[in-house]
Write a structure and sequence with these properties.
Six copies of one chain form a homohexamer. Chain A is mainly β. Chain A is built from one helix and six strands, in the order ββββαββ. Chain A is globular. The first copy, chain A, starts with a strand and ends with a strand.
Chain lengths: 69, 69, 69, 69, 69, 69
Amino acid sequence: MKLSARNVLKGKIVAITKGATTTHVKIEIVDGMLVTSSITNEACEDLRLEIGQEAAAIIKASDVIIGVE
Amino acid sequence: MKLSARNVLKGKIVAITKGATTTHVKIEIVDGMLVTSSITNEACEDLRLEIGQEAAAIIKASDVIIGVE
Amino acid sequence: MKLSARNVLKGKIVAITKGATTTHVKIEIVDGMLVTSSITNEACEDLRLEIGQEAAAIIKASDVIIGVE
Amino acid sequence: MKLSARNVLKGKIVAITKGATTTHVKIEIVDGMLVTSSITNEACEDLRLEIGQEAAAIIKASDVIIGVE
Amino acid sequence: MKLSARNVLKGKIVAITKGATTTHVKIEIVDGMLVTSSITNEACEDLRLEIGQEAAAIIKASDVIIGVE
Amino acid sequence: MKLSARNVLKGKIVAITKGATTTHVKIEIVDGMLVTSSITNEACEDLRLEIGQEAAAIIKASDVIIGVE
């Protein structure tokens, strides 16, 4: 499936932290650069996410804030 | 200012496309890896964004979808 | 690609309205029930969206507000 | 109250899963088509959500990603 | 309609800027404190928004980032 | 850091509710007007948020829905 979302950052899952209903997943997209995602436990189980697995962080352009010093 | 947003990806602005009310900004966070952001023209002018400028793409963890093959 | 996003509503594109940088797309997911999406013109061109095409409206659970009378 | 949000999908609540601070609610908008929402426990209690209750899934157009095969 | 969204900030519309497909609306929620919203032109026309009108800025808790000095 | 996000509402933290992975934080931006935010526990610990602390609620314009009676 091709997505309208402009940002599809590919990497490897390096951490999964499960809560009562919400799971946090960290993807390393380049050496030392992590992207953290907060998803439902249901999604985590459905995709059978595991540490070491290849995965993409998908982000809509309208969800990206710009910051400058 | 320190932010609760888990993802602050630093890079350089490589493209700015201005529309009637909305501007699209592309930040290169590593060689060849771009993040696209959609912001208001007002924000673009307020921050005086320019190509070549250092900038960060800031993304809340709850806005990151995970995709796997 | 499998997505963590809990909501993937399949239908047909029934309207595309292009602006200066932002395009609005309407997908009919069941008879008379439309979902409106606001995406970048770039995404619209990249996916070559056309009226009549099958498409899915993808929505993260954290972006769904509940309303009751 | 009338809302600017373009998507107000009406249906019936078919599942409520409460976590420590976050609740997941599933609304059936047409036979077999569910929309999942992730809200605060506080909101769930405030609206006194119950299985079987009529409810709407409200989604801003800017939060809808388009996917095509 | 009661909403799960935790933030409903009431005020008066003080500015409306229409673009090709996107409109920016500013609501003054207390003296000198504005909230800016970006909505579709369609929503703006549908709600017949006008300067001086009472309106609420509605924001889901998961869309609020915290910043500290 | 200057942000493209149009809404930076300053106030004081008046409540922090920690869950298994998600924390809810309430900021009083003017007398009796609260903004609720849902963030990761990690962010809460990272920023060392405490009741009474000055903090800002940061919201992108594209995440603000307008409601009118």
